[in-house]
Amino acid sequence: MCDVDTPEHKQPLDTRLERKRVPGKCIKCKTAKPNVTIRGCLYCKPCFVSASIVKFRGALKKSNSRIDAQRRQQNGVSEPQRLMVALSGGPSSTAMLHLVVDYQQSVTQRSGDFVQPPYADIVVGHIDESALFDVAEGAVRSIADGRTFCEASLEDIFSASADRDVLLQIVRASMASEQQQQNGGGFCAQIIRNSDNNTPPRERLRQLFSALDSDTSRESLLDAIRTFLLVRLARAHHCSVLLLGDSATRIATRVVSLTSCGRGFSLPFEIAPESSWFDGVTMIRPMRDFIAKEVAFFNRWAGYTSVVVPTFTTGAPVHASIDRLSETFVVGLDRDFASTVSTVCRTVQKLEPRADALAACPCIVCGMPAEPDAQDWRSRLTVGQAAAPALSSAGFDISSHLCYSCQNILHFSESGDRGGLVLPGFCVERIRDHAVSRPSASSDAEQHEALRRQVEQFFLNSDDEDDDCE
Amino acid sequence: MSKLAVTLRFVSGAELLIKDEFRAQSNKKSGDLEFKHEVPAGTEEAPLRMKELIEHVRDNLVKGDKDQFYKDGKLRPGILVIINGSDWEVEDGPEYKVQADDVIEFISTLHGG
């Protein structure tokens, strides 16, 4: 049996030979002239398209089975979920939408028998950024190709929503006093009720972004708002799964830029293949194994058209923002060392969130876990009695509710003549949600109750006002 | 010097780098740019290669900051080139000898174009 010369043992050798590349031919079919090279491998057009489909389904199935296992553990059963595809209209999310729809159809059409589809429904979620950028109207909607199209606008964060009046509430962050800034950049911020309710949401959004000091800050804040709106949109449409179109190139770029922006604490959540950080919505990144080049070729050959999604640094020099600089760095390295992107992605996929990150309270701006002692870490200066004069009695100190990176964003913003930075109402909502959800049995129950009461005032008063209006 | 007519396409953000005057020549309704363009053909001993064509595009078609397109003797990383439907890396890359009626496509894969 152990004789290596038996015919059975020769089989693997032949297979291995078959796997060998044929120089100058496609790595898969070994007969056709190649049309593209990906990480040093040659593919012909049909083989590349089918390999991409297989790769996408593989990544999605892997994520699905991990989520299913989690759900079974929690609920005992796992039903097909409603799925939302986050569609910016850019190449990666466009490809993702077509690929997931194609996957759903391929399963249901496989045989005449009834087969349970992987998802109960697939809807498209889009964030309209026309308040900040010029975008062609209706272009993204046409990519959705008749699927249920759910849309939210960036300025929605400042407008009232029918079911949640609290969104009306607008707060102000007041910056650290001059003295503190000189003392090594200590951070102190408080929110007070905003008295100006006449500025239209769009204008308010623009004011918020123009008050920030750099495009790096603007891109970070835009990211935070986009994530908030997508999660809210998914919840509103009862979708428990949200697909995000981050490609491998994008993930590798984000690893560098998020780290540089001081987001190391929340990094594992922001680049994870699956993340359940936000209650009730699991985010999946099924494009994580595609480099930008693969996405471009796939779209071209599959005939999918995408749009250009502008950012603050579109057309700007490479050093315009940390994100753009990181992209140039990663993409440049990847040109000379073809596996840079995949190596970075493979490495960071092994990152696990720390236990204290899982238990940490969310930053009220970005919603990501905020390191509890970010402030101490940032500087030895804490907000103590010395800072008290800067805080008005009606204010509520939010410094400890901000992550290190968002502290930076707000710290370097200009409040201008409006007396402060007008933050969207979801910031207060996040503090309240956290105050409500935290178990009151903890040792600091008293403190916690005080916090809850303090936050409540932002909402109670607004209700009173509404009553008056009626 | 004789001329060589090729079709140039700029898509997925690469079109933002091209001078507005070429938009009028484009036969695409969407933001994409596609137009016929004549380039100096080179000589018999030194026929026109992709490298020279890209330099021609940089000098004559690209607006504003040329570094956004071409820097240090190389196309900016993140811009893909497709020659007649194939990745230029499976052709000879910058050494590819341009033929009449070639369709040459520039695709930006950079975030935000």
TrEMBL record, chain A:
Pfam families in the record: CTU2
Coiled coil: none
Entry keyword Flavoprotein: no
Compartment annotation: Cytoplasm
GO biological process assignments: protein urmylation; tRNA wobble position uridine thiolation
Pathway assigned in UniProt: tRNA modification; 5-methoxycarbonylmethyl-2-thiouridine-tRNA biosynthesis
Keyword set, alphabetical order: Cytoplasm, tRNA processing
One of the record's GO molecular function terms: nucleotidyltransferase activity
UniProt GO cellular component terms: cytosol
The keyword tRNA processing is annotated on this UniProt entry: yes
Gene3D superfamilies listed in its UniProt record: HUPs
Its job: Plays a central role in 2-thiolation of mcm(5)S(2)U at tRNA wobble positions of tRNA(Lys), tRNA(Glu) and tRNA(Gln). May act by forming a heterodimer with NCS6 that ligates sulfur from thiocarboxylated URM1 onto the uridine of tRNAs at wobble position. Prior mcm(5) tRNA modification by the elongator complex is required for 2-thiolation. May also be involved in protein urmylation.
Protein family according to the UniProt entry: Belongs to the CTU2/NCS2 family.
Name of the protein: Cytoplasmic tRNA 2-thiolation protein 2
Source species of the chain: Coemansia erecta
Taxonomic lineage from the root: Eukaryota, Fungi, Fungi incertae sedis, Zoopagomycota, Kickxellomycotina
From TrEMBL, chain B:
Keyword RNA-binding in annotation: no
One Gene Ontology term from the biological process aspect of the record: protein urmylation
InterPro entries, sorted: Beta-grasp_dom_sf, Mopterin_synth/thiamin_S_b, Urm1
GO CC, one annotated term: cytosol
A Pfam family it matches: Urm1
Gene3D superfamilies given in the database record: 3.10.20.30
Localization (cell): Cytoplasm
Major place of residence: cytoplasm
Keyword terms, alphabetized: Cytoplasm, Isopeptide bond, tRNA processing, Ubl conjugation pathway
Pathway(s) where this gene product acts: tRNA modification; 5-methoxycarbonylmethyl-2-thiouridine-tRNA biosynthesis
Cross-link (Glycyl lysine isopeptide (Gly-Lys) (interchain with K-? in acceptor proteins)): 113
Described purpose of this protein according to its UniProt entry: Acts as a sulfur carrier required for 2-thiolation of mcm(5)S(2)U at tRNA wobble positions of cytosolic tRNA(Lys), tRNA(Glu) and tRNA(Gln). Serves as sulfur donor in tRNA 2-thiolation reaction by being thiocarboxylated (-COSH) at its C-terminus by the MOCS3 homolog UBA4. The sulfur is then transferred to tRNA to form 2-thiolation of mcm(5)S(2)U. Prior mcm(5) tRNA modification by the elongator complex is required for 2-thiolation. Also acts as a ubiquitin-like protein (UBL) that is covalently conjugated via an isopeptide bond to lysine residues of target proteins such as AHP1.
UniProt-listed PANTHER family: RURM1 PROTEIN
Name under which the protein is recorded: Ubiquitin-related modifier 1
Source lineage: Eukaryota, Fungi, Fungi incertae sedis, Zoopagomycota, Kickxellomycotina
